[in-house]
């Protein structure tokens, strides 16, 4: 990351930092297409001028109108303009999570509006300007870096992932608290769906990759991805929480205890672990990055439902995911139902 990031035109690489960048903002029930629209309108108390600026087709036109009506500008404008800009820039990033994450991704770089026209908000092109907009952006960035959900994860990169079910877009994240790497597999246009179908799938090397039948994980992964592509849009979060959070090697130890007669809960407890060590709080960060706050959740696990609700994600519907029962995992599934509260239909668990 560059130590000094310059921005100006909204179409440029860092154009999202510009007030002219399209990012709808709702203030007191009124929608503003850009922060520039809002800022320029606040110069006036005349409702007609205010309305013209608010409904300008472009931020450039909003700017032009403020110049045309300059003689009617409020008398205290120079005293309040910094406060107005701080407010609307804060709202811009608070209300547009993807932009907030992009702002955080600038790290500790100095942000400079490189404007040859403006030495107050920008650097005046020669670098001698006040750069007040850049300073406000850096202040907003610092607050976001220390607030939820932006402090939960770090987005790294994305790439296409062709699969037998279809082509997904794979997003890579790092969980800030633990350093673990997690994936979001996105299919279709999730922005067009009010409540996308999603699955929180904890990594299970034995079931997902080695085709083990002593659990239902691989079967659930297969069905979840198929369900998402059938829907046309959805997300699977692939979480690096092997063995319900105890890790691969301890999971092997737990399997050994199960071979001797312990059930899946007793095995974890005999190793000194809780029955389920997983933490889903960071998922809010991943979903926020993707612009998701309401979901249809594929799960049989009430703990996942509760975890997302606590993370302020609205669960419109719980979608059962009952797959893969067989002679090798029936007792395991019965234990999950009896001791962990998993929600299986009686017909499924007793087949």
Task: Give a structural overview.
The protein has 351 residues and is an alpha/beta fold. The chain folds into two domains: 4-146, Orthogonal Bundle (Tetracycline Repressor, domain 2), CATH 1.10.357; 153-241 and 278-350, GTP cyclohydrolase II (Rossmann fold, 3-Layer(aba) Sandwich), CATH 3.40.50.10990. Helix content is 39%, strand content 18%. The chain has 14 helices and eleven strands. The chain has a seven-stranded mixed beta sheet with strand order 5-6-7-9-8-10-11, sandwiched between helices. Strand 10 (294-298), helix 12 (302-310) and strand 11 (314-319) form a beta-alpha-beta unit. It is elongated. The N and C termini lie far apart (56 Å).
Write the layout of secondary structure elements.
Layout: E1 4-7, E2 25-27, E3 30-32, H1 35-41, H2 47-54, H3 59-68, H4 77-95, H5 97-104, E4 110-113, H6 132-145, E5 153-162, E6 167-175, E7 181-187, E8 197-202, H7 205-209, H8 217-231, E9 234-239, H9 248-259, H10 264-270, H11 283-289, E10 294-298, H12 302-310, E11 314-319, H13 330-340, H14 346-349
């Amino acid at each position: 990351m560059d130590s000094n990031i310059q921005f100006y035109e909204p179409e440029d690489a860092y154009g999202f930092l510009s007030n002219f960048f399209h990012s709808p903002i709702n203030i007191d029930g009124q929608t503003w297409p850009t922060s520039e629209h809002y800022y320029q309108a606040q110069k006036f108390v005349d409702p007609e001028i205010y309305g013209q600026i608010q409904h300008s087709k472009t931020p450039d036109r909003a700017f032009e109108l403020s110049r045309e009506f300059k003689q009617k500008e409020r008398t205290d404008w120079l005293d309040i303009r910094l406060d107005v800009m701080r407010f609307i820039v804060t709202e811009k990033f608070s209300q547009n999570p993807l932009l907030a994450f992009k702002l955080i991704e600038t790290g500790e770089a100095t942000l400079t509006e490189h404007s040859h026209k403006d030495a107050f908000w920008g650097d005046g092109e020669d670098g001698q300007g006040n750069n007040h907009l850049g300073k406000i952006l850096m202040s907003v960035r610092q607050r976001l870096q220390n607030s939820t959900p932006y402090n939960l994860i770090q987005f790294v990169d994305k790439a296409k992932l062709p699969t037998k079910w279809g082509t997904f877009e794979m997003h890579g994240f790092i969980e800030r608290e633990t350093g673990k790497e997690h994936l979001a597999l996105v299919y279709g246009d999730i922005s067009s769906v009010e409540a996308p179908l999603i699955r929180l799938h904890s990594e299970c090397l034995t079931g997902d990759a080695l085709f083990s039948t002593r659990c239902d994980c691989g079967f659930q992964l297969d069905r979840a991805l198929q369900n998402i592509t059938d829907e046309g849009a959805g997300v699977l979060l692939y979480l690096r929480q092997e063995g319900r959070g105890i890790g691969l090697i301890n999971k092997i130890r737990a399997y050994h205890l199960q071979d001797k007669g312990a059930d899946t809960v007793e095995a974890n407890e005999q190793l000194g672990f809780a029955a389920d060590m997983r933490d889903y709080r960071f998922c809010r960060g991943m979903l926020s990055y993707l612009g998701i706050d309401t979901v249809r959740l594929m799960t049989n696990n009430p703990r996942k439902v509760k975890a997302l609700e606590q993370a302020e994600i609205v669960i419109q519907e719980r979608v059962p995911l009952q797959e893969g029962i067989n002679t090798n995992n029936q007792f395991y599934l019965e234990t999950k139902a009896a001791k962990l509260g998993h929600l299986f239909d009686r017909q499924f668990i007793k087949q």
